[in-house]
Design a protein that fits this description.
The protein is α+β, with helices and mostly antiparallel strands. The protein has helices at 10-57, 73-77, 152-187, 189-203, 222-270, 275-305, 319-329, 331-336, 356-373, 427-438, and strands at 60-63, 66-69, 87-93, 96-100, 115-122, 125-134, 143-150, 316-318, 340-344, 351-353, 379-383, 390-395, 441-445, 453-458, 460-461. It has ten helices and 15 strands. The strands form four sheets. Strands 4-3-7-6-5 form a five-stranded antiparallel β-sheet, with helices on one face. It is rod-shaped and about 165 Å long.
Length: 462
């Protein structure tokens, strides 16, 4: 959900597209099944009722001028059931009931020898009536025979069958829903794999512009992925162009700035101008110096972000020697600020994975930050405590608050209280980029004495 708007879901749309017609089909089947159940129960019950009617009709006869009926016990016994429905019958001739229940409703138009069925009521109770008009020898009009039963059993049987039908359809709906969900999930799995591929690249600290693999992409998503790969190619081209421009521009600016700085220094030595002129020359000298430092850092950043070569992962260097050499190079800069650098390490070499050049630039940037932002007269400790590949650079300066220790790795970010110091805000970004290139991690901690800052670099030991 973005800004309160629910994002469309392809999976939800497919499920709805499949479930809505499925539910409509099941509703249609429910109505059709209910109609079929009622017809089946009614047909079976009507056949039993018709058999009872015909068993009575076949015993009608004329004897000595009287209409006789030999009512067999099975004629009405076949209508017995567990729900104890009531059974009624009547025999009438010329509209007069000869025997049976006279309260049974009279039939309508009948055809001879044809059994008809109708629904009616008997004393307010619903009944089902079977009627037959039968010709008896010696009589000039047909005899009307009616057999009726209450519909309690029919209703109960219909209800049980409808409940069973509903339970079966609900079970079928649940099974089909589960199968459809699994089928949709299985069908969308290639898209999930594609998303995981993009997520892995997004979480990868190194920028990867390689095109997404098309072998597992479904045909429906192939145009989109192909267009996305084409976009990746354009972005990579633009990124490489910008990177080359930064690197080339930085290299091209170094020589002119060196010349300008040299002439400014000569001008400051031999100038007999006013104090205002000397101040202007000093400002130019500081600005050129800061710009030179920025260009050097931009070049380092460009080197850290250029594509990896296959040989880098297999290289190694001596961390003790590299750290000692870099610390010696910054001893003069530390003395200029009345600061002291001490180096603590064992006498044995410590080989770690990576590049000595990149590691040297990492250490140089950390030492430069410690000297630049530390207090005059302070102390910097460079330490390799053991053979685990850990390097610590600790100072007793103002330090960095814990809440800002992640932000200082952002490019050009500087703490508000350090804006008056020389610097570009790129040093720690370069350290992190170079470390990531070699598989090293960098974190900032508070020293044990509670003052200053300790940078801990974890290299990969061999």
């Amino acid at each position: 959900m973005i800004f309160g708007i629910t994002q469309p879901s392809l999976k939800r749309r497919l499920l709805l597209t499949l479930f809505v017609p499925l539910c409509l089909i099941l509703v249609a089947l429910s109505f059709g099944g209910a109609w079929l159940v009622r017809r089946t129960v009614e047909g079976a019950s009507d056949r039993v009722l018709s058999g009872s009617l015909q068993a009575i009709s076949e015993t009608l006869a004329m004897q000595e001028g009287y209409l006789t009926l030999d009512l067999p016990p099975s004629a009405l016994g076949m209508l017995e059931n567990a729900d104890r429905d009531n059974v009624y019958y009547s025999i009438s001739y010329r509209g007069k009931v000869i025997t049976g229940y006279s309260e049974l409703p009279p039939p309508g138009n009948l055809r001879l020898e044809d059994v008809s069925f109708r629904d009616s009521t008997f004393h307010g109770i619903p009944i089902r009536v079977a009627t037959e008009a039968r010709l008896v020898p010696q009589l000039d009009s047909p005899v009307i025979v009616q057999v009726a039963e209450t519909v309690k059993n029919r209703t109960a049987v219909t209800h049980r069958m409808l409940v069973a039908l509903a339970a079966g359809e609900l079970f079928l709906l649940a099974v089909i829903a589960a199968l459809v969900f699994l089928a949709v999930d299985w069908g969308l799995r290639p898209l999930l794999m594609l998303r995981r591929e993009v997520d892995e690249r997004n979480n990868d600290p190194d920028i990867n512009f390689a095109p997404l693999p098309l072998a597992t992409v479904p045909q429906e998503a192939l145009p989109f992925v192909s267009a996305f790969n084409s976009l990746l190619g354009h972005v990579e081209t633009a990124f490489q162009t910008l990177r080359r421009f930064t690197s080339d521009a930085s290299h091209q600016l170094r020589a002119p700035l060196t010349v300008v700085r040299t002439h400014v220094e000569l001008l400051s030595r031999h100038s007999d101008g006013t104090d205002e002129m000397k101040g202007a020359i000093a400002d130019i000298h500081n600005a050129v110096k800061a710009l030179q430092h920025l260009i050097v850092q931009l070049i380092s950043l460009a080197k850290a972000e250029r594509p990896h070569s296959n040989a880098e992962g297999a290289s190694a260097f001596d961390l003790v020697e590299c750290t000692a050499a870099t610390a010696r190079n910054y001893a003069t800069q530390a003395l200029a600020r009345d600061m002291e650098i001490s180096f603590e390490a064992g006498p044995q070499p410590l080989n770690v994975s990576g590049s000595a050049i990149f590691a040297g630039e990492m250490i140089a940037n950390l030492l430069d930050n410690a000297i630049r932002y530390g207090h005059p007269g302070g102390h910097i400790t460079v330490r390799i405590p053991d053979d685990s590949g850990v390097l610590e650079i600790e100072d007793d300066g103002p330090g960095i608050p814990p809440q800002d220790r992640e932000r200082v790795f952002e490019r050009f970010y500087r703490q508000p209280h350090n804006t008056d110091r020389d610097g570009s805000g790129l040093g720690l970004s370069i350290v992190q980029a170079l470390g990531r290139r070699m598989g090293a991690t960098v974190r900032l901690e508070t020293p044990a004495h509670g003052r200053g800052l300790k940078a801990v670099v974890q290299f990969q030991p061999l």
